[in-house]
Design brief:
Strand order of the largest sheet of chain B: 4-3-2-1-5
Distance between the termini of chain A: 24 Å
Order of helices and strands of chain A: EEEHEHEHEHE
Shape of chain A: globular
Largest sheet of chain B: 5 strands, parallel
Order of helices and strands of chain B: EHEHEHHEHE
Number of strands of chain B: 5
Helix content of chain B: 25-40%
Oligomer: heterodimer
Structural class of chain B: alpha/beta
Chain lengths: ~130, ~130
């Protein structure tokens, strides 16, 4: 069983969202963000992991004019206002794509694969998009 | 054990909804509880009663409806994802000025909060899809 903590008004669990896909080309990234924003109202312990092409979701300077899709990347900056502050990025995924944490539009903690595994092990609910 | 199931892919193009269905059926047969099945992304397309597969193939939508009726399952379709993809119940259709609705029996339209609540209330949340 998970080490659930009884909070006033209900259970608090560790929710982890794993974002693995590029922001455009499919709708997974956008609809994942919608879950995170709605989920924030439930006062759970939330973390987000960006890995594989998911790291592109939070790169700076996104311009979607050419593909006629909404650039929703500014919303990641607003996550802090929803008390979603635990953002983690895969070190290997960044390196494979020639990126560093400086290329990202939000403050993140860069973790290696082993650290990400440990983080995932601590979670109660994992939603992968 | 109490499960919430998330289905992220539409029927026929992807195995995920078949696998989710078989998982739900097997879990019920083994005596587990399915707290909720939540349809998201293209998974909302599992909920249109206009689906008409060839007669010699399985009917993915009817199969969910029948399982829901038999076991009193809570099949929830995400409203935002459904609106994008043209899945509506009578209320939603009316609210959005559409001339038809298409949700299959046993499904209901609600919000993403139902997914989070499922994760909170269940022992396991299992996601099917890419």
């Amino acid at each position: 069983m998970s080490d659930e903590e009884m909070m006033e008004g209900g259970v608090q669990k560790k929710f982890c969202y794993i974002n693995r896909k590029a922001p455009y080309g499919t709708i997974y990234a956008l609809e994942s963000l919608e879950v995170v924003l709605i989920g924030a109202a439930f006062e759970q312990d939330v973390s987000l992991i960006f890995m594989d092409d998911g790291v592109f979701q939070i790169t700076k300077g996104q311009d979607t004019a050419g593909i006629g899709m909404k650039n929703f990347s500014p919303t990641y900056r607003a996550l802090e206002m929803y008390d979603v502050e635990k953002l983690y990025v895969s070190e290997e995924s960044l390196a494979e794509r020639g990126l560093t944490a400086d290329d990202l539009l939000v403050d993140v903690e860069v973790l290696n694969a082993e650290q990400i595994r440990d983080l995932m092990e601590q979670q109660d609910v994992i939603l992968s998009f | 054990m109490k499960f919430t199931i998330q289905v992220n892919e539409g029927p026929y193009t992807h195995q995920a909804s078949d696998t989710a269905y078989n998982f739900v059926k097997a879990a019920l047969e083994a005596g587990h509880e399915i707290y909720r099945v939540f349809f998201y992304h293209d998974g909302v397309n599992n909920a249109t009663r206009l689906t008409t597969p060839p007669q010699d193939d399985r009917n993915v939508v009817n199969r969910w409806s029948e399982l829901a009726a038999k076991h009193n399952l809570d099949l929830v379709v995400c409203v935002a994802a459904a609106q994008r993809r043209g899945i509506a119940d009578a209320d939603e259709a009316k609210r959005n000025g559409k001339d038809a609705d298409n949700i299959a029996p046993g499904f209901r339209i609600s919000g993403l909060g139902q997914l989070i609540e499922g994760g909170i209330q269940s022992d396991r949340l299992v996601v099917f899809g890419d």
